[in-house]
Structure formats: C-alpha cells, structure tokens
Amino acid sequence: MQDYTDSMQHYLGASCEVLKLDNNLLFAGSIHQYDAGEDELTVSIRNGNETPQGIIYHTPVKLHVQTNISMNKVLLLYGQVSRCAADFWKIALKHSFSCAERRSSFRQPVSVEAIVSRGSGMASSAVAPCQMIDVSLTGLCFSSQECYLEGEQIFVSSLQLRRDGPVHSFACTVQRVQPLESGALRYGCSFNDITERQEDLLFQDMFSLQVKAFNQQ
Question: What local confidence, expressed as pLDDT, does residue 213 receive?
C-alpha cells in the first residue's frame, strides 16, 4: 500500500467517513488538519451535528477519505482515536495502512488452501484443491495441479484467510498462467462482480493480517 504521509496535505478539507472496523458508521466530517510530527489527523464533524461520545481512548477506527484531487479515488486510513470532542476527533495514524484507491491492487501474501472449480457459481464442476498465494481487492493468485486456460471462468470457494474469519467464495476469470518448478501451475485471477459486502469482508481480513504481520516485526 502506498505511503500517505507525503501527500496528506492534499486531503485537507476532503470529506470523510469515520467507521468502526466492522464498517459501522460513527460520523461523517472532513479532514481539518494533519500533524506530520505526531502523525495525527483532526477530523471535524459537519455543522449542526456532534460526534459520538463515550468512545474509548485508543479505539481502532478506519476512515474513508474522498480525495479532492480525483473524485474517483478513495484514501483508506486506519488508526486509533486519541481525542474525542463534540465537534472534532483526533486520530493517530502511526500504525495505520492506506491505499490510494478503494479497489487497490495491493497484494496480501497468504498461505491457505481453498477449492477451485470450473464455471462461475455454486453449480461449478471439476472441483479441485488449490493453494492460495496472495489476494487483493481485485483478485487472487493460487497454485494448482489442474490446468485452466486464460479467460476461463472459475469459482473459488472455502477460502478462509484467518482463523475464525469469514469463509469467502468468488467467481473469477483466469488472467495469467505461469508454470512453477514444482510442476504445478500458478494462476492470477480477477474477481467477477465482487459485491461491496464481499469487498468489505475481504478488506477486514487483509487489514487483520497486516496488523498481525506488523506486530510480529
């Protein structure tokens, strides 16, 4: 994911939503100030409203920030609440992650098994196991002994990226095929019509994996 610290000044005045990690909206406002020294944002509430009170110090939150540079891009930030006032919050971004677009091509390495079958739905045929290599908000990569063709429609199911996490299923199109030294084939696939709900669950999993990796450094 891209580093946001050098470009945060471009987002001053941009509209944003502050949400819990489960995507429950806390409030909508705008980016009022960015303190590079503290790596902290000040988010102001819209006129006539008040921010939610009773939020515990250091509560993790995420922000959807609508950039003023391109209305087709969204900045995603994760951080912790450092101050709650009626008309603004301060959010520390020191341990956050960001991407320039909601549908980012950032790839999260994973090492889990899943099921892949031919076709584009639950009625798919020729079921076979596969080993996941990475996943992004636009697609995934896996290895398999089965042979699929570029452009072929497949269905990936039983994909659980973390313990106790949701089980994902995606209709995909094979975009790239690459032979591996092991004799298996590596497939790069794009999602077909992923829903907002699917994307949100996937992003939550990716963020949780990133936090775990960060804490282990």
Answer: 63
